[in-house]
Structure prediction request, 211 residues.
Amino acid sequence: MTRPHGRWLPLAVLTAALAALIASVVWVSSSRPNSTWRPGPKAMMGTVSSTGPIRTLTDADRAADRFADRWNLHVGEVMQFSNGYYAELLDRNGRGATEVLINPDSRTVQLEFGPAMMWNTSYGMTPARKQTAAAAIGPDQAVRMADQWLKEHRTGLHAAEPDRFPGYYTLHTLRGDRIVGMLSVNATSGDVWYHTWHGRFLQVQEHPAST
Prediction:
């Protein structure tokens, strides 16, 4: 994660280790009544297991739907990467709610590492006192910040239009018109967090299980 001027907050090489640590901290924190971390009103609820193998986008969509049902959400975009599947969850009005990862090996669905856990003011682990903070950064500014970060750290890439989630934006990163990956921009601070855990992009589809 970096700030727009390029200073690393942690180093990207530590992302995988930090992701595992974050997941364990969330679990411990949400089970301790006197913990320093206070989950949001719909904070992380562990993982959900798929009832069958996850080999396709449709399988991943159905698995994500089981997770979404617990919060009265539904699945939007589903993406396949070399390290697994990603899905965005939407509310009943079609607004971005949160993001999840679907692991085809363990057949589990969980909140995505990084922004979905740390920045999401409705479905993450953000302290309650921050949940009413107004977004200071609009979508156009988020694109400019993302492009500036990519210019400095991922030469040759640029940002697509942002998807808004509570407290932050997520944007596809593109080379020309082809998706490469994604990053998020904090809607209050302008911090940028590149999603390094996905691996190579393979394909994307809108809610394939409903078609």
